[in-house]
Design a protein that fits this description.
By secondary structure, the protein is an all-alpha fold. It contains four helices and no strands. The longest helix has about 60 residues, at about 10-75.
Amino acid sequence: MAIPAQRGDPVRLMHRRLFLTGLLMVTAFVGHGAWSVYHKEQESRVLRTEAESQLASLEAREARLRGDIARLKSERGVEEALRAEYELGNDGEEVIVIVEPPAPPPEPKPRESVWERAIPWW
């Protein structure tokens, strides 16, 4: 019957309590670490999504620029660029000038009478 006597031993009870307290602290520490890793994973997922969308837009821009470069390498593309930039015309094209009609002359201002000039408050 030595086992029941050992269960009530105060030193052994204190060791058990210290062990459980330490185990609780280790569990809390590991839980906090796992929670931090979870939040970092969420942030990295958001950043990855943003980076992928930026990559897609940059790839679309690159494709558009490559198309523009290919078009400008041809003679027709150079002509289009010059027409757009400097408003050039082809041989045989004519310029249409739109002229505004002349403005009508202003109506003459009625003359003031002698009394209106002499007595402004009248």
